[in-house]
Amino acid sequence: MNIDPAALSQLLGVASTSFNDTNITAIVPLNTDGTEGENHTNGVYGGWFDKDGNPRYFAEGHVYIEVFSDLLHWNCGLQQALCSDSQHTVTMQLQYHDGTVLKKVNIKVVFAID
Question: What does the pLDDT profile of the chain (114 residues) look like in tens digits?
């Protein structure tokens, strides 16, 4: 999955000419209640998500998002043995420093499984 830098800069309220992905300070998985979860993937950022969309460990994970050095390219997948549902919705929060201001954007990802 690729994050469009122009769309992201607009959501952050940052001019596209000023946007720099090195100002991304974190990408965290969110629980369904909006609190921060933990990354239990091999990526620098990411999360395994359970059937309800909450970050968990691999053993409970239905779908995952992993982010490595390219912070605007996210690897997504599923654990086929557990993932019998046709759809999962999860949320990742991208945190960006704009000068001294920390800005946050929540990104919902819908996994549609055929």
Answer: 999 999 999 999 999 999 999 999 999 999 999 999 999 999 999 999 999 999 999 999 999 999 999 999 999 999 877 777 678 999 999 999 999 999 999 999 999 877
SS (H, E, C) the chain: CECCHHHHHHHHCCCCCCCCHHHEEEEEEECCCCCECCCCCCCCEEEEECCCCCEECHHHCCEEEEECCCCCEEEEEECCCCCCCCEEEEEEEEEEEECCEEEEEEEEEEEECC
Structure tokens at 112: 């549609």
Q: How far is CA 6 from CA 2, 64, 72, 103, in A?
A: 12, 25, 11, 16
Q: Which of 2, 39, 3, 44 is nearest to 25 (CA)?
A: 44
Residue identified by tokens 């982010």 is: 67
